[in-house]
Amino acid sequence: MSLVQATQLAKTYRAGDIDVPAIKGVDFAIEPSSFVAFVGPSGSGKSTLLNMIGCLDHPTSGTLKVLDTDIATLDRKAAAKFRGEHIGFVFQDFNLIPVLTVFENVEYPLRMVQKWPAEKRREQVMRMLEAVGMTDQADKRPDQISGGQKQRVAVARALVSNPKLVLADEPTANLDHDTAYRILELMKRMRDESRTTFIFSTHDPKIMGEAEVTFTLEDGLLQSGGHHA
Amino acid sequence: MLDVLAIASRNLLRYRRRTLLTLLLIVIGMVAVLLFIAVAGSFKSMMVGQITDSVLGHVQVHRKGYVASIDNLPLNLNLKPQMVSKVEDALKQNLLVESWSPRVKFGGMFSNFAETTSIRINGIDPAREAATTPLLPGRMTEGEKDGPLVSRGQIVIPQLLARGMKTKIGDTVVVVATNRDGSVNGKTFVVRGVLEGISGPGGRDGYIHIDDARELLRMTDQEVSEIAIRLKDFARLNQVDSQLKQVLESVTNKDGKPMLEVHTWADLSPFASLARMIDLMTLFIKIVLVSIVLVSVMNVMIMAVFERIREIGTIAAIGTPPGRILSLFLAEGLMLGVVGTLAGIVLSLAGIFGINVWKPTFAFGQQQNLVMAPTIAPGDVMTIAILVVIVAVIASLQPAWKASRMDPISALRHV
Questions:
Q1: Is B317 on the interface with A (CB under 8 A)?
Q2: pLDDT at residue number B200
Q3: Contacts of B395 (CB under 8 A, 6+ apart)
Q4: How far apart are CA B85 and CA B67, in angstroms?
Q5: Which CATH number is A203's domain given?
Q6: In which band, very low, low, confident or very high, does the pLDDT at B255 lie, cut at 50, 70 and 90?
């Protein structure tokens, strides 16, 4: 069974009186534990697709099943619950909470979303910080660490609740090439260790090659689907 | 909940200056209200105490129509002995009544043999009057405060009259009065004391023994003009008022109409309006406090939501339930309210303590050097504290609701 299954998936936005099609009826499937990239130029629909897979947005037509759940059936509350239980997010701008330490940022999903007990939480957070090599920075605030370190923390936060799927929208866009490469290596290693599916978007040709499966989007349509590297 | 409070406190400390300014507003508002309640409350209770405990008593019983003509002190509207007896029976049976004092009141002429002026006289039973208006001897500016206020043949005169007539303790004076039949009678008295004047009805009356009053007025019956009553608990004034009205309604004339009327001190003294004004001002001050808390907390929370839109998008995207986001922002408002309230209470109590140490004095009417001793009831502090905290949470509700309903995609795109 595919982890993500899209059938004639379309999304149209309304801009004033004009309908703007962002995704124009695409079909694809993503298997568990894969390392997938959606690539394409800016405005090709990558973020829209990731938003729908992440249950942040609903399709206009077609179906999108994530973990066998039709995401169109999820209301606001159910979608939040689904994301909290099954999906981790890595953002282009890292989006760490500035008032929390590195440890507390990673701890946040367990504390505020899944409500793990404190001791279990601590063990899991320390395990994740060790996995991303940030144990010694645990007490620092986000403004006290580098961009690459912030993204490592973001990866740890995305994985801390053992999600089935991690979505990363342009995770390397704000990083230099070496750091970007190391982040992707980290994501791949984490996939190998946790068997979590990683889906990321990028328009950087150097980064695209790191994906095991690549979908190329252009103007809301898939130009090549499920190309295996 | 503790997790929510912990994160809320971090968020409040994020913009320390703004948080401190908001707290300062709440604290200033709290201190203003609590000090006002304490000072105005003590002023009010001191004044009410002076009026009730040195002149009026808490409740008075008169014959029907007497109060409407009270300026004339009509002798034809005195309570007859059988009416007095019925009132006293009712008072004996009421467990909330501490004491009562029958009075014979009349207007007369006061002469020091050189000059003559008008005077209002209270004929009293000294022991019963002392039990009903215990602060009365304290108003003596000249003469012995201890012992009965007056004995037979003695008179206590108001300060203004003593000054105007240049009358001293031990002087012999004459009081002349017209009785209900129109005949005039006079009697000599020795000045026993001089009473400080007090604002309100009866505040500038003279006092003689009730038997002297009856003799002067040539009363054949044991009539009285009014019965002043003191309660065991002033807070139950309205309850006793209702009970007495109900019981004394049964005393009727031959036409079946009630012959007695019951009045509380507030019905008899114009100071009751001032007391009501103080209550009204307290209410307005409370409304100002609520407005300060509402506007300041709402302002700070609206700013907090506006500045943290991307952060809200992030926590919503990673699965924080809308209710949890709502509670995060409500907790910030709650903490502002609680911290501001606690600081406000501490500063207010310190202020009240400071005033009590300082002991400022003030004047009320002709009374000088009244010491202000503000106190505040724990119930008042609790009421204000709960009000402020509730208002702080209500003020956070709209921004918190907005944050919880935010679309994660739009929020994440926010620059």
A1: yes
A2: 67
A3: B293, B294, B295, B296, B297, B298, B301, B333
A4: 20
A5: 3.40.50.300
A6: confident
Q: B-chain residues within 8 Å CB-CB of A99?
A: 7, 10-11, 13-14
Please state, rounded to an integer, the average pLDDT across all residues of chain B.
91
Burial status of residue B322 (CB atoms within 10 A of its CB: 0-12, 13-18, 19 or more): middle
User: Cβ separation of A108 and B11 shorter than 8 Å?
Assistant: no
**pLDDT > 60? residue B45:** yes
B321 near A CB under 8 A? yes
* Mean pLDDT of the B57-79 span: 91
Q: In CATH, which of 2.40.160, 2.60.40, 2.40.70, 3.30.70 is domain B72-79+100-230?
A: 2.40.70
pTM of the full structure: 0.79
For residue A181, being part of any structural domain is answered with: yes
**How many angstroms separate the CA atoms of B268 and B347, rounded?**
39
For residues A7 and A25, what is the distance between their CA atoms, to the nearest angstrom?
7
Nearest by CB to B11, from A93, A99, A157: name it: A99
Please state, in angstroms and as integers, the Cα–Cα distance from residue B5 to each residue in A140, B84, B335, B336, following that order. 21, 67, 8, 11
Instruction: Provide the 10 A C-beta neighbour count for residue A91.
Output: 23
Where helices occur in B175-270 by DSSP H, the ranges are: 210-216, 237-248, 265-268
**Is A43 inside any structural domain?**
yes
Chain A residues within 8 A of B14 when measuring between CB atoms: 98-99
Please determine, for residue A228, whether its predicted confidence score (pLDDT) is greater than 70. no
Domain spans in chain B, listed from the N-terminal domain onward: 2-50+273-413, 72-79+100-230
Choice between B199 and B49, residue whose per-residue pLDDT is larger? B49
Radius of gyration of chain A (CA): 17
As for the ipTM of the complex, it is 0.91
Is A62 inside any structural domain? no
Where do the DSSP E strands lie in A119-212?
165-169, 197-202
Q: How far is B406 from chain A (nearest CA, A)?
A: 10
Position A216 in a domain: yes
Size of chain A in residues: 229
Q: How many CB atoms lie within 10 A of CB B64?
A: 15
Instruction: Inform me whether the C-beta atom of residue A163 falls under 8 Å from chain B C-beta atoms.
Output: no
- Closest Cα in chain A, distance from residue B320 (Å): 5
CB–CB of A76 and B322 under 8 A? yes
Rounded to the nearest angstrom, the minimum Cα separation between B328 and chain A is 10
Q: Which residues span the domain enclosing A206?
A: 32-56+74-228
Domain count, chain A: 1
Structure confidence at residue B366 as a pLDDT band (50, 70, 90): low
What is the residue whose two structure tokens read 């973001």?
A154
Q: Answer whether A51 sits within 8 Å of B320, measured CB to CB.
A: no
Q: What one-letter code names the amino acid at B251?
A: V
How far is C-alpha B315 from the chain's CA centre?
54
B9 touching chain A per CB within 8 A: no
Alpha-carbon span A226 to A215, nearest angstrom: 5
Which tokens is B386 given? 């709960």
